[in-house]
């Protein structure tokens, strides 16, 4: 079964809301082997919606609509589909009773246009709405299924899980599951990664391999399809092993993980605490660190030391270091990392100093960054970066590199 998801609502096209429904539905459909090849968004316009339906019918046999089932004039999904399929709408008594009971419970007057929400395509399978008013429905014509769902996620998601999903499973009978795994890479560019595994990508069939780059990281999504979920995972394992043999040193995590999450996981595993000294990143490392639940017990504290005065008087960086080497230097980064850890009695220290931009500092070009890494019992290390990009990008990438370097440093 091949599906297309059509989100109806001008607010989507205006950027007023994000279409999270398509993501949710696609993930559920993957579990039962339904291919989702297209996501479409269309405004509250019957002609454009009709055009979107005609296009979808040529490439899908399951068309899922979200939105446009409400009581107002711009809620036109049901009406447009009914005209297109040459069928009629009829009142669903159970849905109407549910709507009337809602207004009785809340003590609000029920206007006539609210009855519109109880209309369904004649002959359709009704999907009850236990968290709102308008029911959903599944209608079949020829070899195509048309599924209509409400737009609000708080209504759509429980309706889909409780009623639509089981109905689709029964219609499919036997099916193949679609399993996927995301490998997360850092320290290698998308072009280089693709070059290293080019033959695997060119020869893909099942599983498939899809690279994606973003925010200084690269991911590979491996997707397999099989009637047996265990076999699908085995196919993914075999492909991952081939990839690891070539570029495994750059893999740091899976799926929705992040470098910061992996760092926190490692610190917990090793029972290590951390402190930070931040100049160019301005506290962003600590902000991201503490945004992850459970990280609070690991961070002893940190110092945001933008000025030389704070570096010297609070962080105790030697005046000689600042005067001789400058604050954009490996020597300053080293002292910052060591002193932060020692002042706060932490096991690990990390420091960031450099030039985020937009102007040079101490003769160093924008993007020059030094990251200090300290751990009790180890020799302090400093890593130098030569980044390019905007001020914001340099700060974000500095933090990612800091996590990346620290992961390797602690595990040595």
Describe the structure.
By secondary structure, this protein is of the alpha/beta class. The protein has helices spanning 10-13, 20-30, 46-57, 77-84, 93-106, 153-172, 190-196, 198-202, 229-247, 259-270, 284-290, 308-313, 319-324, 330-343, 391-411; strands spanning 2-8, 35-42, 62-66, 89-91, 119-121, 125-127, 136-141, 144-149, 177-186, 208-214, 217-226, 251-254, 274-278, 299-304, 348-354, 368-375, 381-386. Strand 7 and strand 8 form a beta hairpin. It is elongated and about 85 Å long. The model has no long low-confidence stretch (mean pLDDT 94).
- Rg over CA atoms: 28 Å
Low-confidence stretches: none
Broad structural category: alpha/beta
The share of residues in extended strands comes to 25-35%
Separation of termini? 49 Å
Task: Tally the beta strands.
Answer: 17
Multimeric organization: single chain
Major sheet: arrangement of strands: 2-1-3-8-7-6
Mean pLDDT: 94
- Overall morphology: elongated
Helicity range of the residues? Answer: 40-55%
What is the helix tally?
15
- Main pleated-sheet profile: 6 strands, mixed
Explain briefly what this protein structure is.
With 412 residues, the protein is of the alpha/beta class. The chain has helices spanning 10-13, 20-30, 46-57, 77-84, 93-106, 153-172, 190-196, 198-202, 229-247, 259-270, 284-290, 308-313, 319-324, 330-343, 391-411, and strands at residues 2-8, 35-42, 62-66, 89-91, 119-121, 125-127, 136-141, 144-149, 177-186, 208-214, 217-226, 251-254, 274-278, 299-304, 348-354, 368-375, 381-386. The protein is built from 15 helices and 17 strands.
